[in-house]
Amino acid sequence: MTSVTSASYDVKWEKLPDDFILPDDPVDNIHQPALAAALTDSLEVAGQLSDTAVTTTNYGIFATVNGKIVVKAPDWAYIPHIRVPKEEIERSYTPQLQGEPPIIVMEFLSDTNGHEYSIKPTYPPGKWFFYEKILKVPHYIIFEPYSGLIEHYQLDESAGYKIQSSDDNGRYWIPQLQLYLGLWEGTREQSKGYWLRWWNEAGELLLWGSELAIEERQKAEVEKQKAEVERQKAERLAAQLRAAGIEPEL
């Protein structure tokens, strides 16, 4: 992907006016809410979300560019630290003013447009241009839910996005999170398909809450079975002692 030639833009990080009407477009991919929720779920379960970290879903990230308000709403984003109460960012989020910029944004492709690749610099600017040149987000993920194709673009030394290759496991390292992002095929909440998931540095999959609950139930069942085996062994030993004329100690 060819990046826009670097130019000078007047970017201001200001609070969104209270009377500004945010776009209320419906999500353009039926998988988007579930994909986004799954990404956040495993981070929360693994304790990877601090009190000041925020993940957003179809939520406006705002900047004033050349005197005009620009709002983009990535399908999923990870903001590592906000400096204001979360109540102050209920309508939108302004990087620099209210906290740090996102370290990763994601777009889940629909079959309706190619806006995710737009490098249009004039108003209203394209998503790619806004993430790369204005927000300067280190990682931009474009995901095709139907085919499972992941495109990982990372800012290089020239502050432009460069596509990254996956490792031998088909995963991408996100150093700011100390996690790998990769593809997983399976079922979540009765929905079967491709999912974006996290793995830690040791290659262990970060579980969803539902998976952790199943795992804990299975562990409890194993412990219950072990306890039953031990009880039966104790009963057999007691019976053997009584047969030998020895009353076992209770």
UniProtKB/TrEMBL annotation:
Keywords associated with the record: Coiled coil
Taxonomy, superkingdom: Bacteria
InterPro entries assigned to the protein according to its UniProt record, in alphabetical order: Nuclease_put_TT1808, Uma2
A Pfam family: Uma2
Keyword Coiled coil: yes
Residue ranges of domain Putative restriction endonuclease in the record: 72-184
Positions in coiled-coil regions: 210-244
Name of this chain's protein: Putative restriction endonuclease domain-containing protein
Source organism: Crocosphaera watsonii WH 8502
